[in-house]
Specification:
The chain is α/β, with parallel strands linked by helices and 498 residues long. It has five domains: 36 residues; 56 residues; 171 residues, Nucleotidyltransferase, domain 5; 62 residues, no CATH class; 80 residues, no CATH class. The protein has 16 helices and 15 strands. The strands form four sheets. Strands 1, 2, 3, 4, 7 and 8 form a six-stranded mixed beta sheet that branches. A four-stranded antiparallel beta sheet has the order 9-12-13-14, with no helix packed on it. A hairpin with a 2-residue loop joins β10 and β11. α5 packs across α6.
């Protein structure tokens, strides 16, 4: 570059002749013309593509293989090595592998799509789910994480759930709208089965699921669904999903439960609001205020993110929901029951009144028993006490076992039934309170249900009781005369009571 600059100066500034420079440097005159025409060496310029002498006749064959691959699963498509082998074996190709590899790269690059940069207005959102591994209480599990991203401010909200389904889709929206303090007026989605029941032709028309319509009717946002296999239409949230997985789930989080993980994710989302976007003068938190100004207001009533199912309790007092069974009190066996499935719990009701509530099971073909639901039946069938499946894993304080043994020893055939009556007190009293009452009863030999009930209620010393007139104003005017005890002396006189 230094010699290039000196030659240009000597000819164009100092006025030296081209002929003298050529004699001095031995340079070809075409090279000198290039030096004078360009301020820096232009480098080698390929005017037309190089001819592929060996692989050229086989380009159409390679194109055919690539077109056939488009209809095959990704893991079953041809590699460059496999195409090279087929060309040699089937078509008599005698060139190198590198030539085939370059030809394939050139053909694929021509098919790569070019995208239009889009405007992101305040108040819009993009929603998607991602998946990652999490260590929950010592168990490595795959979770689904919900992401709502606001393209204008680049603010986002992330929550983890057991899996992607209607309930978690709803719950993710509810938490995100509460976090942002409003409802994004237009939301972009992919074509998940949770939201889309059917794609009509090759257009953007969609037949939406009942679950999505319920959510939309409550929050009143507009929707936009991407074309099939066109995730670039919601490219912001796609990028946030990758960012979340790489930054929030690496290394694998170690948590005791999803509640702890979700609180940690919310804190990370808040911390990220302090960053500034490339080319922006304001922080994410400041841009988020402009997003909020364009939001729809939150509805006055909260959206109940629960899937409702009407069913009937079985003869075992079990209700099936999402491939799992949940118990209800035996009084509701064979009765119609409404199930509400939330992310964290399952509530069961009869005629509008809640009759049971269980923690949600996310595995399949499991059974969740509440022992209290079967105590009424157990009282009628006391012989099943040691074989009742709902009581199999029921952990009771030690005093319960002592009480049962003493009752059965002292009351013979009625001891088991009396012990079950004591267990039924748990339907109205807490385990700790009843255990304390049993311990007090054992100390004084109170070995009946009625006796133990007496220890469940507070007992005040009669000397400490005091009658207060505050709640009895009608008694304020009652006058009670002082009794004359001297009249009792007459009983000792002659002729008195004998």
């Amino acid at each position: 570059m230094e010699d290039w600059t000196k030659i240009r100066q000597r000819i164009l500034v100092e006025g030296n002749s081209k002929r003298s420079i050529l004699r001095e440097t031995g340079m070809h005159w075409k090279t000198l013309e290039k030096v004078l025409a360009h301020s820096e060496p232009p480098g080698y310029r390929l005017i037309s593509p190089r001819k592929m002498w060996k692989v050229g006749p086989y380009i159409e064959r390679i194109k055919q293989i690539l077109v056939e691959d488009e209809g095959m699963p990704r893991k079953q498509r041809h590699t460059a090595q496999r195409i090279y082998q087929r060309l040699k074996e089937e078509d008599g190709y005698d060139g190198s592998y590198d030539a085939v590899w370059k030809a394939i790269g050139g053909l694929k690059s021509r098919k790569q799509e070019v995208f239009m940069p889009l405007i992101h207005r305040p108040g819009e959102a993009q929603i998607d789910f991602g998946f990652a591994l999490v260590n929950i209480n010592g168990e490595l599990r795959k979770v689904a994480f919900f992401v709502m991203a606001l393209p204008y401010s680049d603010a986002f909200f992330v929550q983890a759930f057991e899996r992607e389904c209607t309930e978690t889709f709803w719950e993710g929206h509810v938490r995100a709208f509460e976090y942002f303090g409003g409802v994004s007026y237009r939301n972009s989605y992919d074509n998940s089965r949770v939201a889309v029941a059917q794609i009509v032709g090759g257009t953007r028309e969609r037949k939406l699921t009942m679950g999505f319509l319920q959510l939309q009717s409550h929050y009143l946002f507009a929707h936009h669904f991407c074309l099939v296999r066109r995730a670039n239409e919601k490219g912001v949230v796609e990028g946030v999903v990758r960012f979340t997985r790489q930054n929030f789930f690496v290394p694998v989080p170690q948590v005791k439960d999803l509640e702890e993980l979700n609180q940690w994710l919310v804190n990370r989302c808040r911390e990220d609001l302090g960053r500034k976007l490339r080319g922006k003068t304001l922080s994410k938190a400041q841009l988020l205020e402009e997003d909020r100004a364009a939001f729809l207001p939150l509805p006055s009533t909260a959206f109940e993110a629960s899937r409702k199912v009407s069913t009937t309790a079985s003869s075992l007092s079990l209700v099936r929901f999402d491939h799992n069974d949940y118990s209800v009190p035996v009084a509701y066996g064979h009765h119609p029951v409404v199930v509400k499935g939330f992310c964290n719990e399952v509530r069961l009701s009869y005629l509008g009144a809640e009759i049971a509530c269980h923690k949600r099971i996310w595995k399949k073909e499991q059974v969740c028993f509440d022992p209290l639901h079967y105590l009424a039946l157990l009282e009628r069938k006391p012989g099943s006490l040691d074989y009742a499946r709902p009581l199999e894993e029921w952990k009771l304080p030690e005093c319960f076992g002592i009480l049962r043994r003493r009752m059965e020893n002292e009351r013979q055939g009625e001891g088991t039934r009396e012990y079950i009556r004591v267990l039924r007190l748990l339907e109205k009293h807490s385990m700790g309170k009843l255990a304390k009452a049993i311990e007090e009863g054992l100390q004084v030999g109170a070995l009946t249900c009625d006796a133990i009930v007496q220890f469940l209620f507070p007992r005040n010393d009669w000397r400490e009781t005091l009658f207060i007139l505050d709640q009895h104003p009608h008694l304020r005017h009652v006058q009670v005369a002082m009794p004359d005890v001297s009249v009792y002396q007459t009983l000792l006189a002659a002729g008195g009571a004998r």
